[in-house]
Write a structure and sequence with these properties.
Blueprint lengths: L1 H12 L17 H14 L8 H6 L3 H12 L16 H14 L4 H9 L2 H17 L16 H18 L3 H9 L2 H12 L13 H26 L12 H6 L14 H4 L2 H24 L5 H7 L16 H11 L11 H26 L2 H8 L8 H11 L14 H14 L3 H8 L6 H6 L7 H14 L3 H9 L2 H8 L10 H14 L4 H5 L15 H11 L3 H19 L57 H16 L2 H13 L4 H14 L3 H4 L1
Helix pairs in contact: 1-2, 2-5, 4-5, 4-7, 5-8, 7-10, 8-11, 10-11, 11-14, 14-17, 16-17, 17-20, 19-20, 20-23, 23-26, 26-29, 28-29, 29-30, 29-31, 29-32, 31-32
């Protein structure tokens, strides 16, 4: 058997013009003989036995003969009327590629031999010719599927070439390195996405219906194998250098998931349920692969990030947004949905596809959020010449404001993902004071819409984005009074983010803590809101100060315990130090929101500075009436309010929290000093402190 294979291998060389005395006397190879010889070799190499036939054949002239024959097979790709592979050689090329794929299957020595023969280089040259051909054949109304110009034989050649790349590079670093240097990833991705755009199989085709089933089976296989090739090439290198040219492949795959969808299923698919489901699975798998790449790539490649936001041309859409790849991704997030023809399949299949579709949207959203967090792109995304934000910021603001304010008004199709994307992106962009002020102050005035999204019934994932953005917006001093007047602290108290049910969402709780910590700093009125007893229809179960102390007591998170205790520090400093006019409200001119207290006489605590009771009773607190208090001195009322609130803090639980913060943060001077100062103020005589 081995001797027969050696003789058969040597015959392949005789098919090359002028190579041996038996070679053709013409300038073209004997393609008929080459096809027959290669087919027999490929079939013999499909399996392994005790004799290493793969090594025997690889040690002959076969690797170099195959390389030479493939060089002869290529025709000029400059003219779209000519095939990439000459028609007379196509069948032989297909069989030669089968030989190469089988020859290096689990055989490192043969992989090295083919690399030495420069066989991978000629295979990539053929694939590049196919890419060039398809790039010169753009989609049009008369040709909606440019890849339909490829014959069935072309598809077989491409898929088998992918099979060779897969087998040659699997766990073999020399071939992997060589293929990466030749930018094989971009080539494979570009060609596969052109040959198999998701959903295009439903578009009417000029190819006979009798052939379409086989054509789309091969095209689907090309898509599946392409991702396996990319996985192999990335296996030993986590820093794959994806090029910005891959963006076209990424974004065009999304179009098939944006309505309107083709209304009818082509006959070849409607009559073959197994094939139809296989094609839908390939659509979903392809979308998932692209979505994962979109999520990962913006943080790995500077050129890629820049190209995402660079206009493709000077055109703009109906909303006057530039034609960038990022715009196309946003269109998918906003309008993309599972195709209506999925409804024709079983419920289990629809659920599985729908779950994957949701994952893909989430991955793309994470990619866009990552992009907004990249320092090099922040200025461009915000809008370099617009203090209120350019088109991207306006889009994010629109998504937030377009979300219904009332829970009852939200329909099933209202999606949280738009608001999640918008709030996270704006949170990444709003890291400068001027931008935070622009989002809070008119004309943008975003805060009321954000506070509506803190409804207790809202999902924690949505609250994560909202509170993260509000945390940034609360940092500028100019915003704090405005945020307080709009009821930010009250909304957080009602939101239940500090309840037991939210304890697994540390980040959400920390964001809420950060907002309150900023707003109560040197602002008496904001500080007093934490001591208001909730009304029956308010939605809150307890006072804000009680929620904070409960959180400190039960949390296992050191960060939450420290930051929540720092709210107590800021409360003590704010309520102990006499207020300035800007931090204390006027009784005769109350702010335009429900004030937390009403005017009544109150006595300040005169007992020991540390009371055993956790907080005074509700009746000891006073509130300011919305209509003002005639004849009551402003400073006297504010002093009474401060005394009662400070009295609520003079309890053992607050003192314990401060003492624990001091004890566990001896290595952190800021936290240590804050705790000591607050505890000192808390222990001061009531009369002297107030």
């Amino acid at each position: 058997m081995a001797a027969d294979l050696v003789r058969l291998s040597e015959k392949l060389e005789t098919c090359i013009p002028g190579k041996t005395p038996l070679s053709p006397k013409t300038s073209t190879p004997d393609w008929f003989s080459a096809e027959s010889i290669a087919r027999n070799l490929a079939n013999a190499l499909r399996s392994k036995d005790s004799i290493d036939n793969h090594g025997i054949i690889g040690g002959t002239s076969v690797p170099f003969s195959m390389t030479t024959l493939l060089k002869y097979s290529q025709t000029s790709a400059d003219k779209t009327t000519e095939p990439v592979i000459s028609r007379t050689s196509a069948s032989a090329v297909f069989e030669i590629l089968r030989v190469s794929a089988n020859l290096c299957m689990d055989h490192d020595i043969n992989r090295g031999r083919l690399l030495d023969a420069e066989f991978p280089q000629i295979v990539l040259s053929i694939l590049r010719s196919y890419v060039a051909l398809l790039e010169k054949t753009p989609a049009s109304s008369t040709l909606p599927d440019p890849a339909s110009i490829l014959s069935l034989q072309d598809l077989k050649i491409v898929k088998t070439a992918f099979g060779f790349l897969l087998n040659a590079g699997l766990d073999y670093k020399p071939v992997q390195s060589a293929l990466r240097e030749m930018k094989t990833q971009q080539l494979v991705l570009s060609l596969a996405s052109s040959i198999y755009p998701p959903g295009v199989w439903r578009i009417p085709s000029k190819i006979p219906q009798t052939e379409l089933a086989e054509v789309w089976s091969w095209r689907s296989g090309i898509a599946a194998w392409s991702w396996r090739v990319l996985e192999v090439l990335a296996q030993s290198d986590n820093d794959v250098a994806w090029e910005a040219t891959s963006l076209k492949s990424f974004t065009q795959s999304l179009n098939s998931f944006i309505p309107p969808f083709p209304s009818s299923t082509p006959p070849f698919a409607s009559s073959d349920a197994q094939l139809r489901k296989a094609l839908i699975n390939t659509d979903v798998d392809t979308l998932q692969e692209y979505a994962v790449q979109i999520e990962a790539l913006p943080s790995e490649d500077d050129d890629f990030r820049g190209k995402l936001i660079t206009p493709i041309n000077s055109s703009r859409n109906a909303l006057n947004e530039p034609n960038t790849p990022l715009t196309q991704l946003l269109v998918f997030i906003e309008r993309g949905e599972p195709p209506s023809y999925w409804n024709d399949e079983s419920e289990n299949e629809r659920k599985g596809w729908g779950k994957t579709f949701g994952f893909c949207k989430g991955a793309i959203i994470r990619g866009i959020v990552n992009l907004a967090g990249e320092e090099a792109q922040v200025n461009v995304l915000w809008g370099q010449n617009d203090p209120l934000g350019g088109w991207f910021v306006q889009k994010m603001v629109h998504w937030i404001k377009d979300y219904p304010a009332a829970v009852e008004a939200r329909r099933d199709e209202e999606r949280d993902d738009l608001v999640i994307c918008a709030t996270l992106c704006l949170g990444n962009l709003a890291r400068r004071e001027a931008r935070c002020v622009a989002l809070v102050q008119p004309p943008v005035s975003l805060v009321p819409n954000l506070l509506n999204l803190l409804d207790p019934k809202m999902d924690l994932k949505l609250k994560h984005g909202v509170l993260g953005l509000l945390k940034h917006l609360s940092q500028p001093q100019r915003n704090r009074n405005y945020l307080g007047e709009l009821g930010t602290i009250e909304a957080i108290i009602r939101s239940k983010v500090w309840d037991n049910a939210a304890d697994l969402a540390d980040v959400v709780q920390l964001s809420a803590i950060g907002i309150v910590k900023h707003l109560v700093t040197s602002h008496v009125w904001n500080a007093l809101k934490l001591f208001v007893e909730p009304e029956n229809n308010d939605g809150a179960d307890s006072k804000g100060i009680d929620q904070i102390l409960d959180l400190i007591r039960r949390t296992d998170s050191l960060a939450i315990r420290n930051e929540a205790t720092r709210i107590l520090v800021n409360l003590i400093k704010t309520l102990w130090i006499p207020p300035t006019p800007s931090s204390s409200p006027s009784v005769s001119h109350p702010p335009p929101f429900p004030p937390p207290f009403s005017a009544a006489a109150a006595t300040s605590p005169t007992a020991s500075p540390i009371n055993n009771n956790r907080t005074p009773t509700t009746s000891s607190l006073v509130t300011v009436a919305t209509t003002g208090v005639s004849g009551v001195d402003d400073s006297a009322v504010v002093s009474s309010l401060r005394k009662n609130a400070f009295g609520a803090l003079t309890c053992e639980e607050v003192a314990d929290a401060l003492g624990e913060m001091i004890g566990r943060n001896v290595k952190y001077p800021v936290l240590l000093n804050e705790g000591i100062m607050a505890l000192t103020l808390l222990a001061s005589p009531a009369a002297g402190g107030m």
